[in-house]
Design a protein that fits this description.
GO terms for molecular function: L-isoleucine-2-oxoglutarate transaminase activity; L-leucine-2-oxoglutarate transaminase activity; L-valine-2-oxoglutarate transaminase activity. This protein has 281 residues and is of the alpha+beta class. The protein is built from 8 helices and 15 strands. The longest helix is centred in the N-terminal third of the chain and has 15 residues, at 44-58. Bound molecules: N-(5'-phosphopyridoxyl)-D-alanine.
């Protein structure tokens, strides 16, 4: 495998960043994960728009123009011979002697890009069975709309899910409403067949898969409500599912050990999963 690191394509095993990189010391950086199908990046424009927004919110300089970044992304996919898989890109505020305040203007941001092949049949197998989630308190900071590499609460939540034999942890705010998963957006389907997902303010990451699913639902005539929902409402829902670039649409069959619907993957989630790539660009 080949990784792109600050202007060079290097063997993945020996690619490295400096010990005083601010991403390493302070989690002072942002990232994107983008699906690859047929050798193409899915929803590249939306991912690059969100990367730009995350960088702007944190006042990190862009490492290169959008056009140049697009070329490097494609080249990294090509050099790794990825047809179906994922691309990871990360930008940090760069290398500087440790000091919490920003380094002096002109310090170049650090850019790393990797690409890997993923066997998509594993996701399809999970989707055919449906996955389980647990719920945990959402103890993250109040700017999770920024796709920052500071993911410790997310890692702890995902690990707790693993240890409970679940696929994902749904995070619950202090008022009892589900915000999102540790690395996915959260959805339910009401008895009337209306999709419900939390509105995207600073309390969730506005997923690209979420946005593209809005497009698909508009095409299919499926109604969506953007509002909060509680764990109890989710457990009583007709269906539940989660979305992300890595999972697409993944049906949920149990929440905290209580079956959702009839305990099998929902037909609406399954249908949307099968059609997703018809609208993704
Ligand atoms: N995670 N919410 C959180 C907290 C996420 O980390 C992600 C993505 C999403 C879904 O966003 P999108 O549809 O753009 O992938 C929601 C990526 C996949 C990750 O961290 O690996």
């Amino acid at each position: 495998r080949i990784a792109y690191v600050n202007g060079s394509y290097l063997p993945h095993g020996s690619a490295a960043v400096h010990i005083e990189d601010r991403g390493y010391q302070f989690a002072d950086g942002v990232y994107e994960v983008c699906e690859v199908t047929g050798g193409r990046l899915v929803d590249e424009t939306r991912h690059l728009n969100r990367l730009e927004r995350s960088l702007n919110e944190l006042k990190i300089a862009s490492p290169m123009s959008r056009g140049a970044l697009s070329v490097v992304l494609r080249e990294t996919v090509r050099r790794n011979r990825v047809r179906e898989g994922l691309v990871y890109m990360q930008v940090t505020r760069g290398v500087a002697r440790r000091d919490h305040a920003f380094p002096k203007p002109g310090t170049p941001p650090a850019l790393v890009i990797t690409a890997k092949s993923v066997d998509m049949s594993k996701g399809d197998a999970n989707a055919a069975k449906g996955v389980k989630v647990i719920t945990l308190p959402d103890n993250r900071w109040e700017r999770v709309d920024i796709k920052s590499v500071g993911l410790l609460p997310n890692c702890l939540a995902k690990q707790a899910a693993r240890e409970a034999g679940a696929y994902e942890a749904w995070l619950v705010d202090k008022d009892g409403f589900v915000t999102e998963g540790s690395s996915t957006n959260a959805w339910i389907v009401t008895k009337d067949g209306v999709l419900v997902t939390r509105y995207a303010d600073n309390g969730i990451l506005k997923g690209i898969t979420r946005t593209t699913l809005f497009d698909l639902c508009a095409r299919e005539g499926v109604r969506i409500e953007e509002r909060q929902f509680s764990v109890a409402e989710a457990q009583e829902a007709r269906e539940c599912f989660l979305t992300s670039a890595t999972t697409i649409v993944m049906p949920i069959v149990a929440i905290d050990g209580r079956p959702v619907g009839n305990g099998a993957p929902g037909s609406i989630a399954t249908d949307l999963r099968s059609k997703f790539h018809e609208v993704a660009e």
